[in-house]
Structure formats: structure tokens, C-alpha cells
């Protein structure tokens, strides 16, 4: 099979005869001519079969037989096609294949997802097949590029990949969203975030990141929440919160730029406005404190085009507030220094303002919501122990975590990015369910 090429590489072979392994996505034509829309996971393009060419090449009988096979191919039949690559300005891909031979590899009968419109539930029930469509293929290519670019960025910045466990004997921070399971007669919990373990890694290795699935029993149905999603957490020592924001901004810019440079075909398929993505790469992100953001929201709440609820200092943002703020600035925006009461126990207070903590959420513009959450961590053993108690947690459960403040505690900070949130933002997808191959949500665990 080595001589097969990928559709995405077709432009390198203009004028040559090539072989491609693919599936028939669609078919059209009449009389002497047949058009096949082919896909192979890298791209979609068209192959054209002209009956007289087949007769000339294979003789009357075999030529007609081959042309007949092409005319009767059904959707998702797998084939190996041979043909000559031609430039073709009229087609979206810019190239097409002048077909000279075809071999059917696997038949396909009554593929359920036809080119007509289908409802979301139907598509979700057939997710294993829906993944073959051009839009889903493009989204997964964006996801793949983001994954690769994450490893590249942290490698370039001196981080070591440090894998946090998925099973844990205690909750990381939020006991209400925990998935519990049985661990040989004792309760165990699926990880909601690798962060606490990553802090142990940072004290051992300086700069660490993890990247893997986390689980949250989110019972609300939103366009932004999955119950299983992939999180990238980074943690680094001798780092302040401001330095952390610089690193986060560099990371997000690196991700967007990588997709622009390496997945342009996918972005084109998705009809993503790349001028906006370029703007996010080239312009500085906005940084605004939680309290200033509340003031700003209050100032604009009776504007004609706003439709969010009034907020007081101390209230949490809803998604209409997040959307409004990030659109107001038009670039990814850090909301800094939230009230300590609605953030995790391990965050360090703002010097001189114990009601606020040194943290930030990064809001994506265009309504894509929060993509990153990060903070500087409390370093003092006694303060942290008291915080754990104040949050209604048991310091005994956190003995190993508290140890990190006993033996050479240092300033450190970190952040977590939700991969699927980033995918929806960069790909321009309305709902997070399309940002992961097999989404898990309330009422959805199959396929
Ligand atoms: P939200 O307020 O949107 O629920 P969060 O404050 O719970 O987010 P963090 O605990 O800071 O989020 O998690 C870090 C990142 O993980 C978030 O910035 C977001 O990108 C992502 N994330 C959080 N919850 C989910 C979820 N249920 N599904 C997908 N991604 C998520
Ligand atoms: Mg949440």
C-alpha cells in the first residue's frame, strides 16, 4: 500500500499518475461522465471518470464494466483509485483526478448520514459515522494541531510533561461535580484537574505540564460543558501571577498561530474568519480586574444593545456577562482577581486585599467563553491549612499537598486550558459536543 498518496498531498503531484485509498462521499454525473467526491481523512476532492477513456484503455467489455462500477458506487464505499492529477480552478480544492482505474475495497449499503440535513440527536447517535463528514474532519484537524502545538510550546519553554493520576482518593477542589467509583471497597474519584499533583511535580522539576482527560459531573446543559474533557495544566516555580499571564498569552498566541500556519485547509472548510484569528495573534490581550469589569458592566447595563442582568461587586459572571466583556474588548481578555469565595482554596490573596485572589480567567471573544483559568498558589503552610478548614475541607485529606509548603516552599503559579473550549474557539464551532471525537454529557454516553 506504500505507493498510495494522501489527498492533501495531491498538489505536489500535478501531471503525475497517482493512487489514492479513499471513500466515496458523494457521486454525480450522467451519460459518459461520472464525478466522485472522494475523502480520505486528509481532505475532500473530486475524481472524474470519462467513459471513452476507459474503453480505450481496457477495451469495450472491461472498460464498460469498470465505468459501470463507478456509476453505481454507493456512499462510503471504500476504493483505491488511480488517475492523473490536474489543476482545476473551478473546484474548491483546486485540483482533481482524471480517473484511469478503480478498485472497490469494501462495499457500503445505505449509509445513514446522507448529504441532506439531519437533526442533532440523529447525528449524535451516529457520531461514529458523523466523524466522516467534512466539517467534523476539519474540527478534528484543528484539535490535532492544538494538541501538537501544546507539546511544542511547552517543550520550547523548558517544561517537562508530568502525568497526573486520573484516579484519586480525594477531591481536587469541587466536591459537587465529582464522579465516584469503587476502589477495592473504598471510594475513589475521577480527576477533575491534575493541578494539585502538578504542584508536587513543579517542586520536583521546576516547570511541568500535564495533558489528559478530566471528569466533572456537570449536570447543567450548556454549549460549553462536557462531563469528560481534555485539560492541559501547567505549573511553574519561582513565578508570579503577572509572569503567568505573560506565559498564558504567549501560549494561546502560539496555538492560534500554529493552526493558522498548519491547518489552513481545515479553517477554510469551517469558513472560519481568519482575519480575527490573526488579530488575536498580533494584538495584545486585554487585562482587567474583576472589580473594574463589574464597574464596566454596570456602566453599560442600560445600553440599547446589552441584555445581561445587573451585577453587584461580589456576584459571579454568567455567560452573557462574559460574552459582553470579551466582545467589548474584541480580543481575548483576562479577568483578574476574583472574590476568593468563588475560587478554589489554594489561591493566594491579592496583597492588601484579602477578599480577592491572584487569579485570572481568560475569556475568548465572539462568545466562546472561558478557555483558561489560572492563579498564583498560596505558599504558607498555616495560611493554607486555615483556608482548607474555612472551605469546609479536611486538612487530613490534603496532608501530602500541605507537605509541599513544609519543605522549601516557593512562589509558584499555574493554569489550566480546556482543549475543547479552545477547539470551539479556533474552529468557530457553536457547540462543544463537536470538539471531541466522542462527547460525554448529561444524557449522552453512547457511542
Ligand atoms: P466554567 O466556569 O466554565 O465551568 P471552571 O471555572 O469550572 O469553568 P476551571 O476549573 O478553571 O473551569 O477549569 C479550567 C478550564 O477547563 C476552563 O477554563 C475551561 O476551559 C475548561 N473547562 C472547565 N469545565 C469544563 C467542562 N465541563 N467542559 C469542558 N471544558 C471545561
Ligand atoms: Mg465549572
TrEMBL record:
InterPro entries, A to Z: Aa-tRNA-synt_II, aa-tRNA-synth_II, aa-tRNA-synth_II/BPL/LPL, Asn-tRNA-ligase, Asp/Asn-tRNA-synth_IIb, NA-bd_OB-fold, NA-bd_OB_tRNA
Keywords, sorted A to Z: Aminoacyl-tRNA synthetase, ATP-binding, Cytoplasm, Ligase, Nucleotide-binding, Protein biosynthesis
Entry's localization field: Cytoplasm
GO cellular component: cytoplasm
GO biological processes: asparaginyl-tRNA aminoacylation
Domain Aminoacyl-transfer RNA synthetases class-II family profile span(s) in chain numbering: 142-437
GO molecular function terms attached to this record: asparagine-tRNA ligase activity; ATP binding; catalytic activity, acting on a protein; nucleic acid binding; transferase activity
Leader sequence residues: none
Catalytic class of the enzyme: ligase
Reaction equation(s) it catalyzes: tRNA(Asn) + L-asparagine + ATP = L-asparaginyl-tRNA(Asn) + AMP + diphosphate + H(+)
EC number(s) from the headed UniProt entry: 6.1.1.22
Gene3D superfamilies, per the entry: Bira Bifunctional Protein, Domain 2 (3.30.930.10), Nucleic acid-binding proteins (2.40.50.140)
Chief localisation class: cytoplasm
Subunit record text: Homodimer.
Family (UniProt): Belongs to the class-II aminoacyl-tRNA synthetase family.
Protein name per UniProt: Asparagine--tRNA ligase
Amino acid at each position: 500500500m506504500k505507493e498510495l498518496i494522501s489527498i492533501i498531498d495531491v498538489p505536489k503531484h500535478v501531471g503525475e499518475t497517482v493512487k489514492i485509498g479513499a471513500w466515496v462521499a458523494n457521486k454525480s454525473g450522467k451519460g459518459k461522465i461520472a464525478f466522485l467526491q472522494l475523502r480520505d481523512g486528509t481532505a475532500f476532492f473530486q475524481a472524474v471518470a470519462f467513459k471513452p477513456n476507459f474503453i480505450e484503455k481496457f477495451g469495450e467489455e472491461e472498460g464498460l464494466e469498470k465505468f459501470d462500477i463507478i456509476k453505481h458506487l454507493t456512499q462510503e464505499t471504500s476504493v483505491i483509485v488511480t488517475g492523473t492529477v490536474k489543476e482545476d480552478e473551478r473546484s474548491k480544492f483546486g485540483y482533481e483526478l482524471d480517473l484511469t482505474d478503480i478498485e472497490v475495497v469494501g462495499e457500503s449499503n445505505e449509509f445513514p448520514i446522507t448529504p441532506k440535513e439531519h437533526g442533532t440527536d440523529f447525528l449524535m447517535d451516529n457520531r461514529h459515522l458523523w466523524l466522516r463528514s467534512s466539517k467534523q474532519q476539519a474540527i478534528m484537524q484543528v484539535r490535532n494541531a492544538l494538541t501538537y502545538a501544546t507539546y511544542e510550546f511547552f517543550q520550547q519553554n523548558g517544561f517537562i510533561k508530568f502525568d497526573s493520576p486520573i484516579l484519586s482518593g480525594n477531591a481536587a477542589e469541587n466536591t459537587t461535580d465529582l464522579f465516584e467509583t469503587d476502589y477495592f471497597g473504598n471510594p475513589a474519584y475521577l480527576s477533575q484537574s491534575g493541578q494539585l499533583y502538578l504542584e508536587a511535580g513543579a517542586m520536583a522539576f521546576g516547570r511541568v505540564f500535564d495533558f489528559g482527560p478530566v471528569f466533572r459531573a456537570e449536570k447543567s446543559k450548556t454549549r460549553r460543558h462536557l462531563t469528560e474533557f481534555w485539560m492541559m495544566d501547567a505549573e511553574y516555580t519561582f513565578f508570579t501571577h503577572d509572569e503567568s499571564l505573560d506565559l498564558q498569552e504567549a501560549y494561546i498566541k502560539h496555538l492560534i498561530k500554529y493552526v493558522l500556519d498548519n491547518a489552513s485547509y481545515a479553517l477554510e472548510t469551517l469558513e472560519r474568519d481568519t482575519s480575527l484569528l490573526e488579530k488575536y495573534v498580533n494584538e495584545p490581550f486585554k487585562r482587567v480586574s474583576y472589580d473594574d469589569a463589574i464597574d464596566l458592566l454596570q456602566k453599560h447595563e442600560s445600553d440599547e444593545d446589552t441584555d445581561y442582568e445587573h451585577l453587584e461587586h461580589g456576584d459571579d459572571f454568567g455567560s452573557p456577562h462574559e460574552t459582553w466583556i470579551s466582545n467589548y474588548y474584541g480580543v481575548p481578555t483576562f479577568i483578574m482577581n476574583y472574590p476568593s469565595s468563588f475560587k478554589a482554596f489554594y489561591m493566594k490573596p491579592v496583597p492588601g486585599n484579602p477578599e480577592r485572589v491572584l487569579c485570572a480567567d481568560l475569556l475568548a471573544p465572539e462568545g466562546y467563553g472561558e478557555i483558561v483559568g489560572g492563579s498564583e498558589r498560596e505558599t504558607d503552610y498555616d495560611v493554607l491549612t486555615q483556608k482548607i478548614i474555612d472551605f469546609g475541607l479536611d486538612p487530613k485529606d490534603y496532608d501530602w499537598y500541605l507537605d509541599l509548603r513544609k519543605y522549601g516552599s516557593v512562589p509558584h503559579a499555574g493554569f489550566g486550558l480546556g482543549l475543547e473550549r479552545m477547539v470551539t474557539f479556533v474552529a468557530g464551532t457553536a457547540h462543544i459536543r463537536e470538539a471531541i471525537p466522542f462527547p460525554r454529557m448529561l444524557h449522552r454516553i453512547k457511542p
